[in-house]
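Supplementary Data S3. Sequence and structure tokens for construct A.
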Amino acid sequence: MIENYKSIQYEALHFDEKVMLKRAEEFFHLMNHRRSVRSFSSRAVPEKIIENLIKTANTSPSGANKQPWIFCVITNPELKRKIRIAAEEEEYKAYHGGMSEDWKKDLSYLGTDWKKEFLEIAPALIVVFRKPYDIVNGQKRKNYYVQESVGLACGMLLVAIHNAGLVSLTHTPSPMNFLQEILARPENEKPFLLIPFGYPDEKVFVPDIHRKNMEQVLNWYK
């Protein structure tokens, strides 16, 4: 036996192939409707719903089961304003010399700019922090595959948000150190992703873009 290994029996889900196909197709259509949205209603999202979104993200796999993430939910208007001001400062610098011309060209058809008013309008922000290490009894304990683990958890979070009938946006101002300062997070927590989310505004418009087809993203090795 491997030292310290303890196991419990796992009860797997079982469906016949017709049900499997139906569930897979229905879930695809659900998620294919998901879009990044920048037009939010200011209507508050109930705390119990938010808690369940985070619970879902927390089911994500992680290296050595270290779960190297922290989810900070911000609904305080003053903090949201501080985050918007700091984010816009970094975004302004990016759009005025920080980004390459190719990068700006690739973004142009999305209709984005340095102004991020949605950071105040959205009823809640989730700032996801990655933890390269934990502090246990005053000692540093390394975490493993941190980027991959936190990325997976963020994916689960986006799915949970959409499944609940809410909309979201993945926002990555660069650099993001201001989030650690504004939220007074400890040294072992590094900002990974900023997600405004909530109910969609009354009228929402998104870029007319299309996802790659299967020939572009799938290779079979039979």
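Construct B, processed identically:
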Amino acid sequence: MTAANYIEVSFTVAEPGSIQQDLLIAALGEAGYESFLETSVGFNAYIREAHFSESRLQGAIEEVAIPGQEGVFAYEFRLIEPENWNQVWERNFSPVVIGNQCRIRASFHEPDPAFPLEIQIDPKMAFGTGHHETTWLMASWLLELSVAGKKVLDMGCGTGVLAILAAKKGAAEVLAADIDPVCVESTIENAALNGVELVCRLSDVGGLDVRDFDVILANINRNVLLDDIPRYAEKLRPGDSTLLISGFYEGEDLDMLRKKAGESGFQFVAARSRNGWAAAQFRK
């Protein structure tokens, strides 16, 4: 499997952590940027080299700019080849703690026995480390679900964090899937690092021939979720099954997804948010 090159765009923000920064991150997410890491002066954004366009980047900035306020966002960008990813990873990554139950760490961090669950992630060029709000939201909700003995699908698995967490919580079967071969490779290797068994496939949900899942986890993006919610309904076991989704924002995004889920036979349970990002739980 050939790993993709990524572009790292490093932003210097006049007011780090401001609403304008959040709005820009949202606009970049819509423009194809896959992950974001906060820094002391702003944040870094990552997109595949093949999808990068500086004019589209400038358009996202202009979309959220306030007239008369110049220089709110400054940026520079560079190519990150796969063999340099570990340098980026070690420079930016600190362990992620979810409540007092789960800690997500890299191989260069020492284990911490204070946490009942610990997940080790070495990302290659895949994303999904627990730092992003959507992964954090999904993991926090998964910690509250009873998945012991159940059949779980992690759709859009990234580095495999959610699939590994489900396996560690006692799921009987875990299938992880992603359309990115790097994510599949990363998930398989991270599962081995954590000593859990799961199956990982290179596929979208339509290409999976497996059904009767008790739980589906889908942390992707709004448009893909809107397209795939009917397929999730087909893949879930009839009866008391659960769909957890994230990768979208509060407000209009959530409203659109609730409507689509209702049309597909789902019952809305609850939503939660973190820094403008949202996750929602449905039952079928």
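The first strand starts at residue 6 and ends at 13. Residues 33 and 281 are 25 Å apart (CA to CA).
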